[in-house]
Task: structure prediction
Amino acid sequence: MEKFTTHTGIGVPLRRSNVDTDQIIPAVYLKRVTKTGFDDALFAAWRGDESFILNQPAYQAGSVLVAGPDFGTGSSREHAVWALKDYGFRVVIASRFADIFRGNSGKQGLLAAVVSQENVELLWKLIETEPGKHITVSLEDRTVTCGELTVPFEIDDYVRWRLMEGLDDIGLTLQNEEDITAFEATRAAWRPKTLPAKTEPKVEIEAARPVS
Amino acid sequence: MGTTLAEKLWASHLVRKGEDGAPDLIYIDLHMCHEVTSPQAFEGLRLAGRPVRRPDLTIATEDHNTPTLDIDLPIADVTSRTQIDTLRANAREFGVRIHSLGDADQGVVHVVGPQLGLTMPGMTVVCGDSHTSTHGAFGALAFGIGTSEVEHVLATQTLPLKPFKTMAINVDGELPEGTTAKDIILAVIAKIGTGGGQGYVLEYRGEAIRSLSMEARMTVCNMSIEAGARAGLIAPDETTFEYVKGRPHAPEGADWDEAVEYWRTLTTDDDAVFDAEVNLAASDLEPFVTWGTNPGQGLPLSASVPNPEEIADADQREAAENALKYMGLTPGQPLREIKIDTVFLGSCTNGRIEDLRAAAEIIQGRSMAPGLRMLVVPGSARVRLQAEAEGIDQIFKDFGAEWRNAGCSMCLGMNPDQLAPEERSASTSNRNFEGRQGKGGRTHLVSPLVAAATAVRGTLSSPADLEGADLLVGASA
Result:
């Protein structure tokens, strides 16, 4: 994962609360088996609306999304993070994030910065008054700066450290492989195993047909 | 001070305690995979040259994008087919058990796991799907994860996690007739909001919860995520043990006795303190339906579409305005008068045999509202077989409903089962987000009983609205 220290880019105001991951990327775009190429799918339903913020030229090259509370609710699809990254976003700012979305962001190097709603409102005003205005996000200082305004943001210490170091979780965990093996030796015999597979007797499943 | 059930489950799976702000390392007992959130995870393993650490704790099914018609023919949609083929190839390469389309154990992961007896009390269960919270109904710590975490579990059988906070949801009293587990959870979400559970594990407690069947408990836990919670829990009891016993992977003999003895310890201690508590009186509940575009925007069926102008909170007001515009609804319109085009009975929320039985009981001997379509999609191939053995399929067919093969289907519209723009559904699924069931589609979340009554009357209805309603029961569904 690429290291993240600070980022400066165009701020995009998204004045909506409860932006769920179905809005960030509709399910029809989840059929790909790759991790990239989702930029066209980002906010797909809203992109058809001319007045949508990303259809306005001043915001099109945005990389810092400033959204309403409860961003990323709903489905666990990491595709939401991939789509935001593919489009060019490096930071999402909101007063509250859904847990799974925030976790997914941290794994993929997208910074989910928690800023109070009061300060989100101030940021919205600034980037709406002056479309295309830049926002600087310093992970080192935990601050968001837009013009004269500098506000703090919250992020879990560990996630911050991992982002700044660009570390991969699996590699970190495998450093403790002995602990995992030791734990496995203590597991009770009744705990189920998927293999060898056990099922009720296999029966033929009849295919349903279209009703004329 | 005592500990909560969630804390006990955490402690019993702790591989390594995190130091200096690092997360704890938690062992995962069961990992379920499906075609949509796993391909990039397997690809990650391949690139790093890593094996699946515990194929014997891993299982895959095909559910999200699979068709519910003509399942014996090649999947028409090329990208869907590629995704399914990719899962099959990955399962083969990494030695993971898979139940493919056409197999008797294929179906929605959250229906298949419990029915095989792979979900049990005291476990940790994960899947790259937010509705993994379903398995919490067994007293298991079960939660959805993203694809990076899927790869992490495949490689290490663990996850680095910070402890969750705990919230008690106390549902006391008795559910009135015609109300169900779905109405409980929709009322809970309306009460605490779609963000109310963020960072928490919800433990559902109280008389109304204890009296629910195992399948109804799964319905409640399933939608914990819609309140923002990672997981929902219900302490195991005789109902749980009875459900697990005799299933293909259930422990036997001395193992069974040992397991049950342990499972009986899986309760929240009397003197344990939750980080938050919410109380709900079951006797006040009515059939609940959603009117908006998030699961928290719900009301009793007897209410009317709310007026955004009367909502004090600016955010909520704006969300309500957007929702009404999208849903094509007018403030003050009685919910009972909303005309429905399509009824969807199915999903990991309400696609189990009890759900189908409850709906069939309502429609039996009645006819479908003119112009309406009804899709009945069993949660798994086994549920479909069971329904056919009971003759329930015939009741649906006689009524004019379409009797489909198992899968996620119209819950998320990844397969051809979708709503057209502005088409309105009464759906037993879990999400009424914009475009969830098809671009421009309008979703009202309902219980199986309301879905069935709605299919008869053509507008959002409860069984009590039907003629001869006194003959009806089904409060346990």
